[in-house]
Specification:
Largest interface: A-B, 55 and 54 residues
Low-confidence stretches of chain A: 1-14
Oligomer: homodimer
Radius of gyration of chain A: 22 Å
Largest sheet of chain A: none
CATH topology of the largest domain in chain A: Tetracycline Repressor, domain 2
Order of helices and strands of chain A: HHHHHHHHHH
Helix content of chain A: 55-70%
Number of strands of chain A: 0
Strand content of chain A: under 5%
CATH class of the largest domain in chain A: Mainly Alpha
Number of helices of chain A: 10
Mean pLDDT of chain A: 90
CATH architecture of the largest domain in chain A: Orthogonal Bundle
Structural class of chain A: mainly alpha
Shape of chain A: flat
Amino acid sequence: MPPVPTPNDSSTERRTRLNRDRVLDAGAALADAEGIGALTMRRLGKELGVEAMALYNHVHNKDDLLHGMLDRVAGEIELPDSSPDWRDHVRRRAISAHAVLMRHPWAAGLWTSSINLGPARMRYMDSALRSLDEAGFPPDLLDRAFHTIEDHIVGHALQALGFPLDHDQMMETGEEFLRTFPVDEYPDLAAHIRHHLQDDEDGDGFEFGLDLILDGLERRRSPS
Amino acid sequence: MPPVPTPNDSSTERRTRLNRDRVLDAGAALADAEGIGALTMRRLGKELGVEAMALYNHVHNKDDLLHGMLDRVAGEIELPDSSPDWRDHVRRRAISAHAVLMRHPWAAGLWTSSINLGPARMRYMDSALRSLDEAGFPPDLLDRAFHTIEDHIVGHALQALGFPLDHDQMMETGEEFLRTFPVDEYPDLAAHIRHHLQDDEDGDGFEFGLDLILDGLERRRSPS
DNA sequence: CACCCTATGTTTACAATGTAAATATATACG
DNA sequence: CGTATATATTTACATTGTAAACATAGGGTG
């Protein structure tokens, strides 16, 4: 057999054959690195050493590309094995899902708009629903519980990603901002901003809300 | 004085002068009616009887248009007056905010990405923060409470809008869907879908999650 | 009223983007 | 090998946001 060309040989040698997963992964990598706005078909083609139209052999259209990418990252969510403590399951899976969305900022926006769920997403949902089922939630409550947790995951990720300022930047921008801010018109909002500026956010607000929800679910599950 | 031309006279008479609010309102109306995808500068111009470029005298660019529209709908949120029952305030404002986002499906996606808040949005935030402040929440908890509620509002709206199927459509599509669905591979997900199909969603899942959160906040505020 | 200055609207143009259609090439299989 | 099928390229076009230059109108001042 002839020597197979090394996949990463970039310049002279012929590139490895394209396939759907390579396209999806390159797309995710590009979106991670430069933002979803940089992900154009031409640019992604260039990234793979190929013309834009070549991508259409592996992807129906850009929407298919995006949802394929999404399902790829959905596969990164950790699905804990069963254990008697339902809160532990649910909590860990939710935290992992949230972390994945934060790690791929472009993914959170797609999460809510995907009509056709990919296999990884389905595995994730199935796992989440099973945990709640095994915990003994009756069907209606189970449904509500699942959606409330899901809403919190995606809601928090999107809100957090909407303020893409790291702590230092926020200090600067915020101080500057407060100088021109009509403090007397929105006093509580001003206080809120000030609070964000001085206090190091201790821990993640995500887990606070999550525990609030889990507490409430536990109580509704077994009303004492 | 000469007779002022009627604003709605469409064909022969000269149209009323454009201004920012007319542009923003027409934009919101168009996005409401035909989806955010139909909102192009040319189309919006046509809607107002004007060329696309005329809009740029009243709006810096399309982003400015969108955020202007958003602040317009933020003004639709009801801000309840004070009353001793903090949960009542917070609950009603949250429900109103959620309803507004559901009424303007394009708005929910913008809500999370607005760096510069408009005046209506600021009034809304100020009002929400004041309610929690008057309820006696200490600063850290207040902050967490506000963001958790906000996350729930936007998270639920986006998730709900992501499945834009009314009940009847869902029955059809769902039945059809379940036939080709690998039920044995995702048994709990299949059960979940079945549950959605048969059970009339009694009430809004939004309020369920909201009350879960409010319960938890009440308990954290005054640990018995 | 005449004048002109500024705010508003139009025309033309261009670059970026997704993708259809036709064409070329390479790979696998008989 | 030779041919059919899968893959890649080329060319082209419609749609979009918006820059730049030009046109106009309308109102305040002489």
